[in-house]
Amino acid sequence: MRTIRYILQKEFIQIFRDKSMLPIIILIPVLQLLVLSYTATFEIKNIRLVVVDHDHSTDSRNLINKFSGSRFYKYLGEESSYKQAENDIAAGKTDQVLVIEPDFEKKLITEGNASVQVVTDAINGSAASLMAAYAVSIIQGFNENIVVHKSPLHYHGLPIDVSSLFWYNPELNYITYMVPGILVLLITIIAMFLSSMNIVKEKELSTIEQLNVTPIHKLEFIAGKLIPFWIIAMVDLVIGLLLARFWFGIIIVGSPLLLLSVAAVYLVLVLALGLFVSSLTETMQQAMFISWFVLVIFILMSGLFTPIESMPVWAQQLDKFNPLAYFVKINRMIMLKGAVFNDFRKDFFILAGYAAAMLTFSILKYRKTSG
Amino acid sequence: MNDSREKIIEVYDLVKRFGHFEANKHLTFDVYRGEIFGFLGANGAGKTTAMKILCGLSKPTSGSVKVAGVDVNRHPEAVKKRIGYMSQFFSLYNDLTVKENFRFYGGVYGLGKKEIQQRTRYFLDKLNMQGYESMLLRNIPLGWKQKLAFSVASIHRPDIIFLDEPTGGVDPITRRQFWEMIYEASENGTTVFVTTHYMDEAEYCERVSIMSEGEIKALGRPRELKDRYGVKNMNDVFLRIARNVE
Amino acid sequence: MWAFVKKEFLYIFRDYRTMIILFGMPLVQIMLFGFAITNDINNAHIAVLDNSKDVVTREITQKLLSSHYFILDRYLKSYQEIKPAFRRGEIKEVVVFQNDFAKKIKTEGKAHIQLILDASDPNTANILDAYTKGIINTYVFHNLLQGRKIPLHINVQNTMLYNQELKSVFMFVPGIITVILMLISAMMTSITIVREKELGTMEALLVSPVKPAIIIIGKVIPYVVLSFINLVIILLLSQFVFGMPIRGSAPLLLAESLLFLIMSLSLGILISTASKTQQQAMMLSMFVLMLPTILLSGFIFPIENMPLALRLLSDIMPGKWFIIIIKNIMLKGVGIAYFWKETLIILGMTIAFVVMSIKRFNIRLDE
C-alpha cells in the first residue's frame, strides 16, 4: 500500500505541473456547463410569422393581432401574395406563414365557416409540429371568442374543461432540466479522456517499460493512475453543482450527498472504460479517437438531449449498456424531483455491478508483460 | 574455468517467436555474479528481445531463464526486485525534478523515506550534481540524464543491472564517465548486463557474446575472441562474424 | 508530387484504427439519427386516476391510449400515489378525472379533467400537455357535441413545407455532413502536418528541392479524396435508406462542399502552424473547432433561441453557413440566388485562412 502513495504523489505533481492541464480540467468543464446549458434547448419561442391577408377585414386583423400578441410569436408583417411569402420561407426569413382566404369574414358569418392556411417550414420536424400546434391553438382561441361575441346564444362552453399542473418546474424552465444532465456529460468527458490518454502517454514516451521492470503490483499501478482522475472528476462535479445552485439558481431538491455517492460509483465505471481504451491503443491519437467515438454514441443515446422512450425498442435495449443513460436519469431524479435511494435502487445496482465488472475486466486486460 | 563463480543468469535453450519469425533461436549462456557482460549484435539481431525476456517484460516461447536464482518465466514479479533496468529510450519523467524521479522510483521499489533521501544524496554527490535536485529533467543535458537514469536503475541496490544501449547519442567524455560508473557498480558486486553498438566499449567488458540473426555466434573474453579470429580489435571480430553471415 | 500523395495515402490506410473511425463514425451517427434518436415524443408512460370509471372516462382513456403518444402504465387509486410514481420516473403524466364524471356532464353540463405533468423535462411536459388536450378536444367535438352544429367555425389547413412526414433525419443530415467534413479535413490535416514536424521529417522535406506549397498540397489531397468519398456515402445513405431527397442541383451541392472542404483544410493548416505537438493540435481542433461546430451551428439545437452572445459567436462558425447552404439545396431545392451571401462568407473565410497560414508558414521558415 505504501507504493500507491508514491504513485499518487507522482501523478498529482505531473498533472498540476502541466500548464495545459489546469485549463482542461477546470476551465473547460465550466465553459461547457455555461455554454451548453444555454445552447441545448429545443424550446420554441419567437416563431417568425408572415401573414398573407387576402381579406383585410376586421376579423382578419383581429386574428393577426392574436398572433402578434402571443409570447410565442414574432410577427414580421404582411406579404401581398402567397408566392412571396413562400419565398420568405425559402430564404430562411420566416418560419411560418398564415394565409387568410378572401371573404374570410363574410364566409364566416354567412356560411358559418371559413378557412385559413398555416404553412410551416418543417425541416426541423419536431419544432414544426410544435409551431403548428401553437398556431392551431391561437386560431381556436380566436374562434371561441368570435362565437361568444357574435353568437352568444349558441355558446354553451365545452362540456369538458381541462386544466394542467406542471410539477417540479412550473415555469417550464429548460435550463433547469438541462443542467443536471450536462453535469453528467462533463464529468464523463473529463474522466474518460484523462484516463484513456494517461496510460497511453506513458506508452508513447516509453516510460511504461521502466515501470514494468519494477516490482510495482499492477493493482497498485492502476489504482495510482485512476484515483487522481477520480478526485479531479469529483471536484469538477462539486464545482458544477455550485454553479448550478448559484449561477443558474437551480435548487437541488434531493440530497447532494446521495448524488455524490452515486457519482463516486459511476466514475469508477467511466475510468475503467478509459483504462480499457488505453489497453487497446498505442498512441494518444488513437486513444482520443476511440474515446471520442464511444462517447458520441453514449451521449447521443443517453436521453440527455432527446427522450429515451421515443427510441425504438432495440435502441432502448442497447441503452442498458450505456453508463450515461443510467446516471443522467438518476441525477435528474435526485436534483429535480428529490428522489431517494429506494426510487432508483435497481438502476444503481446495475450501475455498480457494471462498474465492478468493467474494472475487473480492464485490470485483467492490463498486462505488465508483452508478447 | 570460471565454474567456481556463482551463476547469476542461467539461460538454457531460449526460443522466442513472433508468428513465423524466430527472434531468438535456442540461446544458451550463463552470466556470473559481479561480471560485466557485453551483449553485442547488429540492429535486429535479437538483443533487445532477449533482454526483455530476462527482465520479465516479455514471455519466452520456450526454454528456461533463471535470473538471481529465480525462474523468470514462472515468477516474473519476484525477479523485478532483484534487477535494475535502463532502456535505450530515455525513460525517466521529463516533467518531474531530479529529486522527484529518485523519490518515485525509490518508493516503487519499497525503500523507506530515509533510505530514499540517503541514496539520492549519495548519487547526486557521486555525479557532482548537488544543487540540481529541484531542476526539471527536461532542462538537463542528455549525458547527465543518462547518468541519472543509471543511478535511478540502481537505487535499490539490485543484484543485476540491465543496460540497453545506454550510451547512444552521448559524447565521448560522458561515455567514459558512464563506464566508470559501470566499473564502480561491478566492483561493489553488482552484475552489469549491457548491450552496445560501440565496439570500443566491448573491450571494457569482461566477457561478450555476439549475436546475429537470433543466434549467439561467439562468446568469450574480448582477448580470446580477438585471438580466435586473429584480429587486433573487437570491431574486426564483429565484422568477421557479420561477414560470415552474409 | 504524385509520390507525396501516394505516401500519404499509404500512411493513412495503414492505420486501420483511424480508418475505421473515419468511415465508421459517419455511418454510425447517421444510422443513430435515422433510426434511433428523435426529439419527437412517443410512447410516453402515463397513469390515470379515475374514480368514476364510467362510459365517458373510459372512452377518453381509450382515445388517449389508441394514439401512439401514450402508454398506460397503471391506474392510480389516490392522489398520494402520484408523487412516488413521478419520483421513480415511471410516468410522465397523470390524467385525473373528476368524480361522477359522466353524471356531472349530464346534470351540470360540465366536468373537469386535471392533467398533472412531470415538468422536470419541460419540453416533454409541454408537448404531452398539448397532445392530451388535443385528443380530448377532438373527442368532445366528435363524440359529445356530435349532431350539435357549431356556428362560425374556422377550418385550419396545416401545410408542412419541405418535410411532410416530419422526419428527424432531415434536420440532422446537413449537420452530420458538416461535422464529418470538418473532422476529416481540419482535424486530420492539422494532426498529420504537426506529426511530421514533431518527428522532424518536415525539415527533411523542406530542405528537399520540392516547394513547400507542393508539400502541403500533397499532404492535403488524400484528405480531400477521403472527405469526398465520405460525403458521397452519407448522401447516398440519406437518400436511399431514409428517403431524404436532393431537390436542388447535385453538382452545385458538390461544388459548395468542395468550397467548404478547402475552407476546412486551410483552417487545418492554420492550426498546424499554431501548434507544436500533436496533442496541442488535437486539443485545438477539438475544443476550438469540433465542439463549437456541433453546438453553435444549428446542427442539433436551433440558433434562434440562444442568448445574443452565443448567436453572435455562431456567426463566426463556418459550419453554420454551410448547414444553411446544404438545407437550401437538398430540402428547399432553391438555387444560388438564395445563398450567395453564405457562399461569399465561406469564400472570404477561406481566403483569410490561406493568407494567415502562408504568413505564419513564411515566418517559421525565416526563423
Low-pLDDT runs of 5+ residues of chain C are none
H-E order of chain C: HHEHEHEHEHEHHHHHHHH
Q: Number of helical segments of chain C?
A: 14
Quaternary state of this entry equals heterotrimer
Rough outline of chain C = elongated
Task: Report on this structure.
The complex is a heterotrimer of chains A (371), B (246) and C (367). Chain A has two domains: 2-40 and 170-365, no CATH class; 47-150, abc type-2 transporter like fold (3-Layer(aba) Sandwich). Chain A is 64% helix and 9% strand. Chain A has helices at 2-17, 21-39, 58-69, 82-90, 104-110, 125-150, 174-204, 207-212, 218-246, 256-280, 284-300, 313-318, 323-337, 345-365; strands spanning 47-53, 73-78, 96-100, 113-121, 160-167. Chain A has a four-stranded mixed beta sheet, with helices on both faces. Chain B is α/β, with parallel strands linked by helices and 246 residues long. Helices cover 37% and strands 26% of the residues of chain B. Chain B is built from nine helices and ten strands. Chain B has a six-stranded mixed beta sheet with strand order 6-7-8-3-9-10, sandwiched between helices. Chain B starts with 6 loop residues before the first strand and ends with a helix. With 367 residues, chain C is α/β, with parallel strands linked by helices. Chain C folds into three domains: 1-36, no CATH class; 44-161, abc type-2 transporter like fold (3-Layer(aba) Sandwich); 168-366, no CATH class. Chain C contains 14 helices and five strands. Chain C has helices at residues 2-14, 16-36, 55-66, 82-87, 101-108, 122-144, 168-199, 201-207, 212-240, 250-274, 278-296, 308-315, 318-332, 340-366; strands at 44-50, 70-76, 93-97, 111-118, 153-161. Chain C has a four-stranded mixed beta sheet. In chain C, α9 (212-240) packs across α10 (250-274) and α13 runs antiparallel to α14. Chain C is elongated, with a radius of gyration of 28 Å. The model of chain C has no long low-confidence stretch (mean pLDDT 83). Chains A and C meet through α2, α4, β4, α6 and β5 of A and α2, α4, β4, α6 and β5 of C. β5 of chain A pairs parallel with β4 of chain C.
Short description:
Chain A has 371 residues and is an alpha/beta fold. In chain A, 64% of the residues lie in helices and 9% in strands. Chain A is elongated.
